[in-house]
Design a protein that fits this description.
The chain is of the alpha+beta class. The protein has a domain of 140 residues: Roll (Pnp Oxidase, Chain A). The protein is 16% helix and 32% strand. It has 5 helices and 12 strands. The strands form 3 sheets. The protein has a 7-stranded antiparallel β-sheet. A 3-stranded antiparallel β-sheet has the order 1-11-12, with no helix packed on it. A hairpin with an 8-residue loop joins strand 7 and strand 8. The longest helix has 11 residues. It is globular, with a radius of gyration of 19 Å. The N and C termini lie far apart (40 Å). The structure holds flavin mononucleotide. The site of flavin mononucleotide has 21 residues, from strand 3, strand 5 and helix 3. Flavin mononucleotide (FMN) binds next to strand 3, strand 5 and helix 3.
Length: 213
């Protein structure tokens, strides 16, 4: 039976129950590890799922960072060094990736704490995650504070992309399900992705057309 709740009712629910409920509403997302470094050269790694594509040309990506008291390290490293990496999570990486959400002290790198391997390119100061099969770096463009709840929208321009060649389709599409990259829901659930179908660019005067790859 369909339930109907108003915000006034939801507000009366227990805090963690309500958070689990609201966190599920925006649906499956691709959880990734964001890698950063501070000025002293200490690396940091944390799992983020509120990451969005902002545009293909110029190639831009953005993510929501919690209030500073809850998630201080990634955003402060990005403010100082102007660069970060986004590393997609494959199924075998899930438990370590989840562990990066723990509140480690500032001096402790989640690379060391969880056993992921930092990987550097000649042009990117921030660490990639060696174990990740699809990863990219971004240069900070803007941090937009969201006054209403003290979160931040961090916007970056994509600079380099590293991935396994076999994942790339002839039309440029990356077959992420072959890399077994996962989707997340809320703050504790992880899912496998399975392709249902690809469709050609939709036009008002044409029926939906499947793409056969
Ligand atoms: C599945 C999952 C998704 C998360 N997504 C985000 C997110 O999008 N934004 C955020 O600020 N924190 C998110 N977190 C929490 C951060 O991982 C956590 O606050 C982390 O300690 C931040 O580390 P930092 O202080 O090193 O930046 C998520 C946690 C989990 C388990």
């Amino acid at each position: 039976m369909e339930q109907h709740y108003t915000l006034e009712e939801i507000k009366t629910w227990e805090r963690f129950y309500r958070a689990n409920f609201i966190n599920s509403l925006s649906g499956f997302k691709s959880a990734s590890l964001i890698g950063t470094i501070n000025e002293a050269g200490n690396t940091n790694l944390a799992i983020f799922s509120n990451i969005v594509h902002l545009g293909a040309d110029p190639a831009m990506v953005g993510f929501i960072n919690r209030p500073l008291a809850a998630a201080p390290h990634t955003i402060s490293n990005i403010e100082k060094t102007g660069v970060f990496t986004i590393n997609l999570i494959s199924e075998e990486m899930i438990s370590k990736a989840h562990q990066t959400s723990a509140k480690y002290a500032e001096g402790i790198s989640e690379f060391d704490a969880t056993g992921f391997t930092p990987q550097f390119t000649e042009t990117c100061k921030a660490p990639f995650v060696k174990e990740s099969k699809v990863k990219y770096s971004a240069e900070l463009m803007e941090i937009i504070p969201i006054k209403y709840n003290n979160t931040f929208f961090v916007i970056g321009a994509i600079k380099e992309v590293l991935f396994e060649k076999s994942l790339l389709n002839p039309d440029g599409f990356l077959s992420l399900e072959e890399a077994e990259t996962i989707a997340s829901l809320g703050l504790d659930a992880y899912y496998r992705a399975q392709l249902v179908a690809r469709y050609a660019y939709a036009k008002p005067d044409l029926e939906p057309r499947l793409i056969n790859n």
